[in-house]
């Protein structure tokens, strides 16, 4: 999940985004990973995730013969649900930024999260929470913008991201 912190969300948008977040979090299978990145400002390299956690499972996933539903529920709440909720509320707060490098972050996340060959057979999903108004030295939607010129530019070639076999949702 990528959250654009260069955006300001209305109260209604925040409520909707939180509802969507809960739905996505609930879809993470047992032992599945959920990672949140934030778009803040332009930086070089791959930004670290704001938070990343594996779902230990819920009480309904428990094998009663060898696991404790109380222990699994506590682990889910403490190591998965609570940290995700806390960090997600924090990333919905806008930050001051002179840039909004959306394409650069999508590329970095695609390389880091979906690029390894061990991910080839796994379900891959990317949720982007953004107004998608790009602003960086490579391309800016503010001022004069031409999609045709961008596609033919060197910037386009540098910013390509391979999202084949990735389900992308934009909120």
Secondary structure layout plus pairing:
Blueprint: E1 2-4, H1 11-27, E2 33-39, E3 51-54, H2 69-91, H3 102-114, E4 125-129, H4 147-151, H5 154-159, E5 167-170
Parallel strand pairs: 1-2, 1-4, 4-5
Antiparallel strand pairs: 2-3
Key words describing this protein structure:
171 residues, alpha/beta, five-stranded mixed β-sheet, single chain, globular
Characterize the overall form. globular
Portion in beta strands: 5-15%
Give the CA-CA distance, first to last residue: 11 Å
Average pLDDT number:
87
Q: Uncertain runs with pLDDT below 50, 5 residues or more?
A: none
**Order of strands in the sheet with most strands:** 3-2-1-4-5
Main β sheet profile: 5 strands, mixed
| Computed CA radius of gyration, to the nearest angstrom | 18 Å
In DSSP terms, counting alpha (H) and pi (I) runs of 4 or more, how many helices? Answer: 5
Written as H for each helix and E for each strand, in order along the chain, the element string is EHEEHHEHHE
**Total DSSP E strands:** 5
Structural class by sheet pairing and helices: alpha/beta
Q: Considering DSSP H and I runs of 4 or more, what fraction of the residues is helical? A: 25-40%
